[in-house]
């Protein structure tokens, strides 16, 4: 998977509005937008995607936030929702450094690696988790890695979750895929090959998850439900 980067685009005065929009998406092909929470999400604290969850899911839990951006939601899992510990992971090293700078002394930590890559997990001592957060990133993972990447990711998530642990997913709809793929040729080619579809019900059930909750929501135009899946307990 390609390393995330943020090349310096030409000055804004040299680009039309459409060109600036395209340049932004080319730089953030993994959805790794700078100032994401300021520009795209409602300024609620804690993030509504956390506050709508049953309180016992995050309370005293060990949480990993995949695609953490600059760490706002990772920190809120502890500060506002009672998680015991939280690890934020992002493919963009610049965003990880921003998260570390924003929360230098807090109980949450931040790691830079590609969480679709199995070897990345074996190189850490993170152990297992009670909750995996996968919020507003499935589209980017899918477009950059195809169907096989999504299946690999679900297998990784299952392996790092404790039995009875939770996967919280906010999947983007296929209509969002189409818009994103128009702005990047490589993503467009992957988009043409995609066969499995969000919200990935069959794939997650096959992996050993049971959906226990689906919350419909519309956050300032983000009409995306949040799904909570539970890892089956082996008896």
UniProtKB/TrEMBL annotation:
Top enzyme class: transferase
Similarity comment: family membership: Belongs to the methyltransferase superfamily.
Any one of the GO BP annotations: methylation
Keyword Flavoprotein: no
Example GO molecular function: RNA methyltransferase activity
InterPro entries in alphabetical order: Bin3-like, Bin3_C, BIN3_SAM-bd_dom, SAM-dependent_MTases_sf
EC number: 2.1.1.-
Protein name (Swiss-Prot/TrEMBL): RNA methyltransferase
């Amino acid at each position: 998977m390609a390393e995330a980067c943020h090349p310096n685009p030409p000055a804004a005065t040299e680009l039309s509005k459409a060109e600036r929009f395209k340049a932004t998406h080319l730089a953030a092909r993994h959805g790794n937008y700078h100032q994401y929470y300021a520009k795209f999400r409602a300024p609620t604290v804690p993030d509504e995607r956390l506050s709508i969850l049953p309180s016992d899911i995050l309370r005293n839990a060990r949480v990993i936030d995949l695609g953490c951006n600059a760490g706002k939601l990772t920190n809120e899992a502890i500060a506002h929702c009672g998680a015991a510990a939280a690890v934020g992971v992002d493919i963009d090293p610049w965003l990880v450094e921003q998260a570390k700078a924003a929360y230098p002394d807090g109980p949450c930590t931040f790691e830079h690696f590609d969480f679709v890559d199995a070897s990345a997990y074996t190189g850490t001592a993170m152990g297992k988790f009670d909750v995996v957060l996968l919020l507003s990133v499935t589209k980017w993972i899918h477009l950059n890695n195809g169907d096989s990447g999504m299946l690999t990711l679900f297998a990784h998530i299952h392996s790092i979750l404790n039995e009875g642990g939770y996967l919280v997913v906010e999947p983007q709809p296929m209509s969002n895929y189409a818009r994103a793929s128009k702005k990047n040729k490589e993503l467009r080619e992957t988009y043409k090959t995609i066969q499995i579809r969000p919200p990935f019900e069959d794939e997650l059930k096959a992996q050993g998850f049971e959906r226990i909750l689906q919350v419909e929501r519309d956050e300032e135009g983000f009409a995306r439900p949040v799904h909570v899946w539970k890892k089956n307990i082996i008896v």
